[in-house]
Amino acid sequence: MITLSSDFGSPYPAAMKGVLASRTDARLLDVSHELPRQDVRAAAFWLREVLPYFPPAVHLVVIDPGVGTDRAALAIRAGGHGLVGPDNGVLLPAARTLADDTDGPGEIEVFEYTDDDPESVTFHGRDVFAPAAATVQETGIEGLERHDRFSPVEEYADLTFPDPTIREDGADGEVLVVDDFGNAITNVPGEVLADRFGEAVSINGAWAPVRRTYAEVDIDNRVVTVGSHGNVELAVNQGWGDERFSVSTGSRVRLRWT
């Protein structure tokens, strides 16, 4: 299986699929081509949340604001999976999660892919990354060292998410992403609300109820909950949480219990 993720919308992904189909018989499966445009961190968050639910596969990821520059093309081996994409950090959070197992954090192995003469400087998804993903699929992720286009590297762009500050009377964090329902997903772990369901907390100075589901408040009312990702989420029942909490991606969030 080869999965495809990008911020391309349509029709650009079709060209990548054409390249893949001409080079491999692997099953092609779209994750999303509507990831936030040129937002490397948001894409990295969603890939970290989605890719671990797949069986071992090659994951082609193209969120590439630096297309045409000297940034490298990478292939990462992680927990039986291969990830292919630009060297801008977008692959790293998902790779680390895929490499983790019951014994603790696993290792990732990073390779640079060499393509000396791509057809275009503006569409490396088609001309560099799709061929690289097909090569990983056909070579097998365990055989990358033996392929002349892949070289192990120790230095590459990294990406990590900011840590929240947990206090006795609350937590300070920030909004990592806003999903298509307007839910503002923070970096604050949901565990801080474990004993507060049915109560209320202050969010940036304004109180809101803490509930397990959106429907536990009336329609168009604010609610603080824990999303499927395990983080504190600011939402509105059948409304737009980012608007009603006056936050956006990157906004600071201060939660207080008292």
Radius of gyration (CA) equals: 20 Å
The biggest sheet, with number of strands, parallel, antiparallel or mixed sense and barrel status, is:
8 strands, antiparallel
CATH topology of the largest domain: Rossmann fold
Alpha-carbon distance between the two ends: 50 Å
Say what oligomer this is.
single chain
CATH class of the largest domain: Alpha Beta
Second-tier CATH architecture of the largest domain: 3-Layer(aba) Sandwich
* Full CATH superfamily name of the largest domain: S-adenosyl-l-methionine hydroxide adenosyltransferase, N-terminal
Number of helices: 5
What is the average per-residue confidence, as pLDDT, rounded to a whole number? 95
Low-confidence stretches: none
What fraction, in percent, of the residue positions are helical?
10-25%
Please trace the helix and strand order, writing H or E for each element: EHEHEEEHEHEEEEEEEEHE
Helix/strand/pairing class, anyone? alpha+beta
E-strand count: 15
Q: What overall form do the CA principal axes indicate?
A: elongated
